Fold:
Amino acid sequence: MSTYKEFLQNNGEKHWQDQWEKWQINKAVDFDKKPKKYVLDMFPYPSAAGLHVGHPEGYTATDIYSRYFRMKGFNVLHPMGWDAFGLPAENYAIKTGTQPKTITEKNIETFKRQIMSLGFSYDWSREINTTDPKYYKWTQWIFLQLFKKGLAYEATVPINWCPSCKTGLANEEVKDGKCDRCGTVVEKKDMRQWMLRITAYADRLLSGLENLNWSESIKALQRNWIGRSEGAEVDFRIANLPAGRQGSTKKIRVYTTRPDTLFGATYMVLSPEHPLVEELKDQIKNWSEVEKYITKAKNKSDLERTDLAKDKSGVELKGVKAINPVNQEQIPVWISDYVLASYGTGAIMAVPAHDERDFEFAKKFDLPIIQVVAPFFSSQVAPACPRSDKETVRRQSVGCFLKHWSEDKYLCLEWKDFGWHSGIIGGVESGENAIEAGLREIQEETGYQNVKFIKQITGETHSYFYAAHKNINRYACGPVLLFQLVDDNWREPELEHVKNHRAVWVDGDKMGEFINLPSFIYGWQALKSGQDCFTDIDSGVMINSEFLNDLKPSEAIGKMADWLEEKGYGKKAVNYKLRDWVFSRQRYWGEPIPLIYCEHCKKQKQKVLIIHGWEGSGEDNWLPWMKQELEKDNFEVFTPTMSTSASPKVDKWMEELMPYMEKLGENDIIIGHSLGSNAAIRLIEKANKKIGHLFLIGSAIGKLPEKRWKLFQLGIMLGADIKSLREFWEKEPLNWSKADELVANKHVILSDDDPYIHPDTHKDVPQNWNFELWHGHKHFTAFEAPEILQKVLVCKPTGWIPVPENELPLELPEVDKYEPTGTGESPLVNIKDWIVTKCPVCGGEARREANTMPQWAGSSWYWLRFIDPQNDKTFADFEKLKYWMPVDVYVGGAEHAVLHLLYGRFWNMVLYDLGYVPQEEPFTKLVNQGMILAENSEKMSKSRGNVVNPDDVIAEHGADAFRMYEMFMGPLEDVKPWNTKGIVGICRFLERVWNMVSSPLQGEVPVGRRGIELKQDLPHPNPPLIKGRGQDALEIILNKTIKKVGEDVENMRFNTAISAMMVLINESKGVSKEFLEKFLLILSPFAPHMTEELWTKLGHKESIFKESWPKYDESKIKDEEVELVVQINGKIRAKLKLPTGTTEAEAIATAKNDENVKKYLDGVEIKKTIFVQNKLISFVI
RNA sequence: GCCCAAGUGGUGAAAUGGUAUACACGAAGGACUUAAAAUCCUUUGGCUGCAAAGCCGUGUGGGUUCGAGUCCCACCUUGGGCACCA
Structure:
C-alpha cells in the first residue's frame, strides 16, 4: 500500500480525472426525471497568462456544490466555456502577426488543461466558445432581434475614445477617466456608433432585482448604476425672442428632483452641448465668447472635467432670459459644463440656496440667491419640548455669535433650565431689523456696549420649543448673525435679562463641541464652511413660496408637481443615470455586426396608411396634420375615409382598405385610431402580408364591459348607431397571433384618461407588443399629435438592412493586418470583397457594417447556449430552456456586478419579451466570490510579480489539497490573502485520512490525535462491532458532522464544513469501515481524487460519485451530556455536566449545590431565574 | 460628498441574542531519532494567583436586555463602488 505522497507522485489524480470522463459521470441529461440543478460559473476569458489562483476559487465552490447535489439525487448541469473575443488576443496579434484565432485556441488549450487538472466535474460535452462561428451565429441573431425591435440604433455621439487602444469604450470600461484596459486618459470623440437601448429596460432591470436572491451589496451596486430618480420636468419659456418670433413657444425644459424649490430658481444653466444654444445664436449678444466656451468644454476629457469639478466655470447667454413659470420672473440663462448633456434634459434650473453646486456657481458669478426652505429645529426633550396644551406664539428672532475684540473666542450662553449652550438669542421688536435686534440684545444680555455687525451667517431658520419662562410654545424664525465686540466697555446688565442663563467665553476651536442648540450648531457649521445651503427634504419648512409656505419640502414636491401638471408647465418625470450601451468596437476580434447599408433602400419612400375610427374621416382629428407633417419628411400617406363610417361594416371597410394594403411593403406603416385599430388587425389578417410597423392609438380592440355598452346606448351618444359599432367591434375575435407574426413592430398607445377605452380592456394584447399608457391625451382627438409623429418618424428607413438569417453566421474574414485603422474604423473596412456586398432587399450594391461587437456580447446570453450547445436551428430549444432555466446558482467575481450582469439580464429580458426564453430573470441566486490577494495583501498582478500559479501548487501538494485550501481560507465571499504556508494544514489532514484508511491494510496502527479512547483498535477491514462509550460518542459526532457538512455545502459555507470534518478526524481513532465509508462520502466533493482512490481501496468497484450522500440519524446527533452554564448577573460562575434534557427544577437544584455558585447566592435574594434547556441557568440577584 | 461591506488572538478565521477565540497556521516545550525532517503529545488573549479562583477583553462611546461580537444610536478606521446625475 502506497502513501498519499506516492499516490500524488504517480499521477493518481490524473488517473481518476480520465476515468470520470470515460464514465461520463458529469453528464447532464436533458429532461431527466430527477430534479434539476443548473450550477454556473462565470466563464473565463482565456488569457495567455493562464489560470491564476483566483479562478479556481469559484470553480471549486461550484464543483463541490455540483458533486454534492448529484449525490443528493439531482440532475446537475455544470458546464464550462470560453469568453474568447477581446482585446488582449487582438493586441498580441498586432504585435506578432499571428491570427487572433490561433492565439485564442492555444490559450483555451492551456486553460482547459489547467481547469481539468483540478478535477472539476464539468460536462465537457457542452463546452462552448464565443469565437466559434457556430456560437456567434446566435449572438448575431440575437442582435438582429434587438435591431428589429428598435432596440439597436445608430447614433453619432461623443464617445469615450482611447487614443492608445484606438477604439471607443463603453462607459463601463472607463475608470477614473482612464481606459480600464491600458490606463490611458480617455478623450471625447464624436463617432458613428451602434447603440443598444438598455435605458428602455431601466425600470424593469431595477424592479427585477427585488425578487432575486443576490447579496444586497450587489443589488445596491446595480441600483446605483441604474440610478433612478423621481422628479419633474418643468418648461421655462424664453422671454425675449427677437421680433418675428414672438409667437414661438421656444422653451427650456429642465429636469429637477426638487420642484418644491422652484420659487428659489434664480437662473438657468444649459449644458454646453445643448441644441438650444445653437438655435438661439442670433439672440445671444456674446456669441463668440459662448462659442469659445463650448469648444473648450467639448475638448475636455472626462478626467479634466471631473478634476476641475471644484472650480466652476460658465458663460452667460447675454440677451437671453427665461421665465420662471411660478412667478413669471425673468432669470438669466448660462451655459456651464457642470451641467451634463447626457442626463435629464441637459438643462437645469439653478436653486443656489438649496443646491451646493448651484450655490458655488452663484457665489462665483455673483448671481442672486433666494432662500425657499428654512431649516427647522424642534426640541424633542423636556423641558424644552413643545407642549400640546400650550399656545404657540410665532415671532421673528435673531441668533448671534459674538466674537471677542482681539482673541479667537466667543461669548456664549449657558441656559440654566434647558441645558442649552447657545449664542445670544433674542426677539425682533416691531420697527427693528434683525441686525438692530441683535445689537440691542447683545447689549442687554451681556452688558457689552460697543458691538459691530460683521455678517449674516445663515438665512432664516425656524425653531420650535417650549419657553418655560413665558409658559408658551415658541416658534422662532430668524437668521444667525455674526457680531464682534469693539472693546471691553461693559456695564452690569439688568437682572431680568440674565436670570435664565449665564455668559461664558468659549475658545473658537471648542465651539463645535460646546454649542448644542440645533439652530446654532447649524449656524456654526455654516460659519466654518462658508456654505448656507440647506438640502434636507424631511426636516425643513417652505418659506417665500406662496402656496407652498409652511409645508415640509417632501410634501411640497408633490404639491408643486401637481400644480405644474395642472397648469401645463410641466409634469412628473423619472430619470436614470443608466445610459444606452455603446455597442460597436472599431476592432477586428469581435462578432461582425450583421447589418448591410443600402443607400437605395434608404431613399425609398415609406408608405403610411392611417385608418380613422367610428364616425370619423380622413379629415378628422390629427389625421390631416399628420399627413402633412409626414409628407414633409418624404413619406407617402394615405388617409382614406370609409363610406360606412357612422354605421361601420367590417366587410365594407376591408373592401375599401384592401387597395391601399396592396400598395404597402414589408417596411411600411399602418396607423389605426380607435375603431381603425380594430380594422387594422383584421386587415392585416385578411391581406396576410408582412408589414413593418403597426400603431394602434386609443385602440378599440379589447372587450368592453356590458355596463359601458349600456352607457353608450343610454344617450351618451344620442342617435348613434351603437349596434353597428358593436357588431364591428366584436365580430370574430381579433387574430392576435397572425398580426403578431406578420408585423415586425407593434405599438399600442392608450391614454389613462380615455373616456371610452380603459387599459384593462387590453389584457389580450400579446406581451411582446410595445404597450404604452400615456397621460392626458383623452381619446386622441386633438388636431395635432406631435408625440405620435415622433414615434412614426423613428420608423423611417435608415438604410440598414439585416443580413438574412439563413446567411448567418456572418463570419469574420481573415485579414493580414489587425491594427485598428486609427480613424475609428475597424480593420475590416480594408477588405473590399467582404465589405462590398449586395443588398438583401433590392439587390443593389451595398456595404457591410465594419464595426464589431464588444466583448460583452457573447457573454450576454451564454448560459442559454449551455442548455443546447449543438442546436443549429435555434440558439436553444425552448423546451430544454424550460427544463433547465433559470440558473439556480451563479458564481463569479463581483467585478461583473454592473457590466456583465446588467447586460445579461437585459438580453435575457428582451428574449423573454420575444417569447424565446421562459424566464425574465436568468439568475435566481448569485454568489460573488471574494478576490484572492497576494501574500502581502496586494492585488495579484503580473507587474507586481506576486502571482501564484495553480500549476505549481498542484504539482507540490495535489489538486485536492489546493481545492480544499482555497475553500478553507475563509468565507467564499470574503477578500482574503493567499498564504502558501497555510496549505500544509490541509495536507496533514488529507494524509491523516489516507493513513486511517490504508494503514490497517498493512497491519499498522491507525494514526489519530486526541482520540476518543476505544476499547479496541484495528477495526479494518472487517472490524468487530465495538460497543461502549467511545463508539457511541463517535456515532454522535459522525452524524452531527454529516448533518453540518450537508447544510454548510448547501449554504456554500465550505470553510466551516472542512473544519467540522477536521474535528471529526481529530476525535477519531480506531474506527469501523462503515464510519470510514460515510466519512469518505462527505469528504468526496471536496477531495474527489483521494476519496475515489480510497473508495476503491475499501473494495468498491463503482465510483464513489455514484453513491448517495449519507443520511444522518437524527436520534444520534444528541449528546448524552451537556455542559450547562450557570450565570449570576450575567457572569459565568459555574459549568455543570448534566444529562441532556435535564429539567429546570433539577438543573437549578444542581446549580444551587455547586460550591462556587453557593458562594454568590448565599444569603441573597434571587430576583429572577432564567432557564434555557441544555444551555444555561441565569440567576439575577 | 453619496451608497455598500467589514473591524474578534501573532496570522487566516469560528460563534440561531446564551460558555468569545472552534478549525488551521505560526510559536514554545516535550516524545521518537546519533541528528535533522516527518510524525505524535502538551501549551498558546491579557493581567493577578502556588492553586482554587478572580478581573479585563470582539474598533470607540452610549443604549436595549437577566445576558450583546451579534440588536439600536452616534462616531472612528479600512476596503469596494459611484461621483458636478440636478
Q: What stands out?
A: Chain A is about 35% helix and 20% strand. The mean pLDDT of chain A is 88.
